[in-house]
Amino acid sequence: MPTPTRIWVIDDDRSVRFVLAEALREAGHLVQGFEGARQALAALAEEAPPDLVFTDVRMPEMDGIALLEVLKARRPGLPVIVMSAYTDVASTASAFRGGAHEFLSKPFDLDEAVALAARALPAGRGGGPGAADAPAPETPADTPLAADALVGETPAMRELFRAIGRVAQTPLNVLITGETGTGKELVARALHRESPRAHKPFVALNTAAIPAELLESELFGHEAGAFTGAQKRHTGRFEQADGGTLFLDEIGDMPAGLQTRLLRVLAEGEFFRVGGRELIRVDVRVIAATHQDLEAKVRDGSFRADLLHRLDVVRLRLPPLRERKADIPALAARFLAQAAARLGSPAKRLNAEALKRLQQHDWPGNVRELENLCWRLAALAPGESIGPRDLAGSLRPAAAASADWTRHLAQAVRDALARGETGLYPAYRETFDQVLLEAALEHTNGHRQRAAGVLGVGRNTVTRKLGRGTG
Ligand SMILES: Nc1ncnc2c1ncn2[C@@H]1O[C@H](COP(=O)(O)OP(=O)(O)OP(=O)(O)O)[C@@H](O)[C@H]1O
Fold this sequence. Notes:
CATH topology of the largest domain: Rossmann fold
Radius of gyration: 27 Å
Bound molecules: adenosine-5'-triphosphate
CATH class of the largest domain: Alpha Beta
Strand order of the largest sheet: 2-1-3-4-5
Largest sheet: 5 strands, parallel
Number of strands: 14
Distance between the termini: 69 Å
CATH architecture of the largest domain: 3-Layer(aba) Sandwich
Number of helices: 21
Number of domains: 4
Shape: globular
């Protein structure tokens, strides 16, 4: 019979200690509980090390991250699972930086914790005495909670924060996907801030914002006289980001020729400036972002598959705000507080009714739309308590609130034309009408007269179009 594995559970909260220990015992492990890091360290001095450790982060006297550091210095092979009720990027990153095996958000599911323990225990249980000779991991100085920390409490965001904390410690290229305004740039900054490259530059370039003909020299720089108007040598973003992180926003808009060039640079780590002869070597971590469906762009030939593979080593998806509406109150409070601090006025608060109204909105512009709204309210709402009346006119329907759909439409048309399609107008017209109609009917629970009313068309138009739509 195999000897049972020994697991330590360290938490100042007795009930957590108790239920977790019980669940692990039921799964056949030998479990020892400690109410603090010091007690655990004292035990480590006297008895054989355990096979696995669960530790809380916030504990009096010595916190779990400091404990993790000591444990890892003494027993580098010992898997440590860090548990915390505070799942923000700074917490997850400091745990993974310290060598945590996994980050478990509290409250957690006991089955999940037991399954995690099973996965964490190495075959043959590892962590033996030999492992203690390996060098201790480097632990950079603690970063304070940044002012631009990501706000999010919903499961999807916590999952994302764990992924950021883990991926930040690696040199891998990352592709961030998500609709406009969901926080892709903020995620890229967090990845940089929590990485070993944090003391080197973070350089951002929005591919869509720069005319195609200037993009190459923006990225790779140029020599004096490389082209008309190039009077001085110019270092490109790749060189500026040397040792650090280069954030390429809207990567889907990169012209074909540059995609090829970028691919080569990513593969070889070296390039020539435009008009240059000197081979430039750089060490840059690339984080790319897009709101587009790059797989579709690969299929229609407008994005290189091999470039996608290079960039997409790790993919982080940012959910749209409408999929995480529970985060709205915390985000709004943060933006209102930031605006008040900037405007030098007392912070305003949204009352319950107003919050409810915000939860009903669809947020086509995502977090950016909410942020803009909060700034407007901070400046213009008359009282310190913001009610639904103050929101009137601010929560415009998708079409008016954001130009995003027109961008998508333009892209769809460009793609269709590139595929050689013709007769686009009637087909798109038809789709446009159907989308409006279906959304309005959904809003009015299928009531045609009211749908016609909110759309501003006659009832007959609705009936006629419905007839066409349903055959
Ligand atoms: N989770 C979050 N917590 C706090 N602020 C956020 C969060 N997500 C986004 N923001 C804020 O919302 C705004 C938009 O975010 P950001 O620019 O990162 O979005 P994006 O996805 O890169 O947008 P685009 O695709 O249009 O470039 C920024 O001001 C950012 O600080």
